[in-house]
Design brief:
Blueprint lengths: L10 E5 L6 H12 L2 E4 H11 L19 H18 L4 E4 L3 H5 L1 H11 L6 E7 L2 H11 L5 H5 L1 H4 L2 H4 L7 E4 L4 H17 L2
Parallel strand pairs: 1-3, 1-4, 2-3, 4-5
């Protein structure tokens, strides 16, 4: 390959509620594809926690915020880093809850626009894990950031947050083993790529 040849970069957006298994899946997928992985928590948590953090409950909204919250700034960092990688020809697996983006087509369209590549090269993967299993996993990992969520699971896992995405996506069964999740996803992804 010519070292100056431009590659068509792609993005797989892995979404789902915290403790659904999306990070483990995204890491395994990036390893399998040899793509760059960008995780909202890795990119922003050290600064976020230094500032004191906050009990975040993602409530999906169709319109962009009129005044940016700390969470909006975190996503801006993630989007900007993703766009830079894509512009360099690096395909990426991006992981975050993406609550608004997976719920509303307008919010998804804004995400694609910010990444600055054609929408046909941006793919959504949704980790579908039952709420009871999500709470069980949070209890097992015992992270300080989960304590308030465990106390109020009905607020954290409301129907509007746990519903299937309102845009085209590939569903990942959160109860499958990591190996099974990758196999099922790649088979579905390859089939969609073949018909493009």
């Amino acid at each position: 390959m010519n070292m100056t040849e431009e590659r068509a970069s792609e993005a797989i957006i892995v979404c789902g509620v915290p403790a659904s298994g999306k990070t483990t899946f995204a890491q395994d997928l990036a390893r399998q594809l040899h793509w760059t992985i960008l995780d909202l928590d890795t990119v922003t948590n050290p600064l976020f926690e230094h500032m004191g953090g906050e009990f975040l409950v993602d409530v999906p909204t169709a319109q962009p915020a009129t005044r940016a919250s700390v969470n909006d700034i975190r996503y801006t960092c993630l989007f900007d880093t993703t766009r830079e990688n894509l512009a360099l020809g690096n395909s990426v697996v991006v992981v975050a809850p993406f609550t608004s983006e997976r719920t509303f087509p307008a919010a998804w369209a804004r995400l694609v626009e910010r990444l600055a590549i054609p929408d046909s090269r941006v793919h959504l993967a949704w980790m579908d894990t039952p709420p009871g299993e999500v709470v069980r996993r949070m209890q097992l990992r015992g992270a300080a950031r989960d304590l308030d969520k465990i106390k109020e699971p009905e607020r954290f896992l409301s129907p509007e947050v746990t519903q299937p995405p309102g845009v085209a996506h590939i569903r990942i069964d959160g109860l499958l083993t990591p190996h099974e999740q990758i196999e099922v996803f790649l088979a579905d992804f390859a089939g969609r790529e073949a018909v493009r």
